[in-house]
Amino acid sequence: MNELKYALDTFYFLVSGALVMWMAAGFAMLEAGLVRSKNTTEILAKNVALFAIACTMYLLFGYAIMYGSTEGGWLPNFGALLGAEHTADAVNQGKADHSLYSDFFFQVVFVATAMSIVSGAVAERMKLVAFLIFCVVLTGFIYPVEGYWKWGSGFLHTMGFQDFAGSGVVHMAGAAAALAGVILLGPRKGKYDAKGNAKGIPGANLPLATLGTFILWLGWFGFNGGSQLLISDVDNANAVAKIFVNTNAAAAGGVIAVFIYTKLVFRKADLTLILNGALAGLVAITAEPLTPSPWAATLIGAVGGVIATLSVGMLDKFKIDDPVGAISVHGTVGVFGCLVVPLTNNGENVNFVNQIIGVVTIFAWVFITSFIVWFVLKKVMGIRVTEEEEYIGLDKVDCGLEAYPEFATVSSSNGGS
Question: Cα–chain-centroid distance for residue 44?
Fold first, then answer.
């Protein structure tokens, strides 16, 4: 019986991890749709490369830091790579719930998600090589350290900080790294006028952005549902089902709230804001998708969607240029998601003080360390392309290949075409 439970929970972990891995495609499509056509190939190359680097760095260093360190501590250890797999005897004795390798696979796709958040925020003006070097540091060290503090049973976990699937550990962390980079990078040329007012720079392919949003919505069931870790008994199966329902409800709430908001305020249904409303709803519920009722989850998602919309405008006032709204969706709403947890979760040590401490600690660590890395890269090799390269587009500069090659009209000898 134990071996059957082990096999079922391992399979569920792997399938959930595959769903989260599919979110990489969602981020790629969303970002490719929201940037200008001249930068599409570069951002797709960036998303493929960052996923590969994240997986490799987490295998070499990240997993050992995050899950091989002392319980209740703040200073991580630097352990070895993945150890030997669980034996049948260990499983039958109840010492293992699922495969060690399935656990690694599920965790590695989370670190790639955090890095994908950075990709969209720095789009259209960052050097590709500088971005990928930063990816090495974030996925191999910065993210695993704060991940250890919570999910590796470090001091935030023992204190009582609650973050079920990563509103803070993953989403806010990715946004903090992105914010540090954007501050040093500066806005895109033409984004703000002489008076500092933001000017719209439309994305090249809104159908692609919409597809990316639906892919992320689907992947989020693995993101939140898989974080229950088990499914092989009645209580865990029921919990997973409720998590799925609440995750979906929050996304729907975010869409509806932003649709209504944009119609009332702008008299137009702004698709890009509506898409971000869905993602904001998902981020908001990620910190605690189990304890709310479905109606409460819908409300949490709705509030998250409106917060993200307001945050986009607020950041523009400070000339924080984020082409895809990633800092608002994942950062501002990630904070909200963590802080709203005590409203539905009355577990031991779950309170607003501990949630605030957790949010401040994670944000400060990721922002400060990321700022240092970005600053060093800026001084050593530069992080921004030249004004001419930005005008030409990064597809030609970095990739030598356009995503949307123009049609050429060739005239025949008799004047036809």
Answer: 16
